[in-house]
Amino acid sequence: MATMRHVFITKKRQALLDEMEQYVLGDQVDHDIMMFGTSFSYEVLDSFNRYKSTTWKELETPSNRFDSLFAYTFNLRQYDVWMHDNEGEGGMQGMLTDLAKMWNTLLKNSDEALEIDGEYTRHGVMQLLNDFKEAVESSYSDPPFKFQLEETQTAKADAHKQRFLSEFGEYVPPSDV
């Protein structure tokens, strides 16, 4: 259990996970065989620009924004070929900068405003974001990509780790299974 983080998936979040999978994959969604190449990174960049300029702006409450951004980021992490096969800068760093800003702003809201539980979902999302950051920053890109999650958010995850250590005496970081 020490390596698991949970995010409660409501019916609304599940619907958004499916919707954002389509947003990220485009025409390849629901295909048995998918083809990923450099062009996929351009499709991801286009999908983010559409998401930011339309979908994000239409969402009025912090909880709706949280659910939507969680689903979008989850799918970016799930279909991560764009991190490894891209034409270098090509606008990707701008996308990552904007995505981090969106998360940093959103996570300043209380658990109540986000309509999440603080015990599981916030920590699960923080782990997703830290895993995302690690994956992005360790992928090949020249110059290297940066995902600048604010220290306050990282500090919250570290505080959770310290609470866990004091309670159970051992901390095993989550592994990518």
Task: Describe this structure as you would to a colleague.
- With about 180 residues, the chain is mainly alpha-helical.
- Helices cover about 65% and strands about 0% of the residues.
Count, helices: 8
Mean pLDDT: 81
Q: Helix/strand-derived class?
A: mainly alpha
- Proportion of residues in β-strands: under 5%
Helix and strand arrangement:
Elements: H1 11-25, H2 38-58, H3 62-78, H4 81-84, H5 92-106, H6 111-114, H7 121-138, H8 151-168
Keywords summarizing the entry:
0% strand; 63% helix; 177 residues; mainly alpha
Short description:
This protein has 177 residues and is an all-alpha fold.
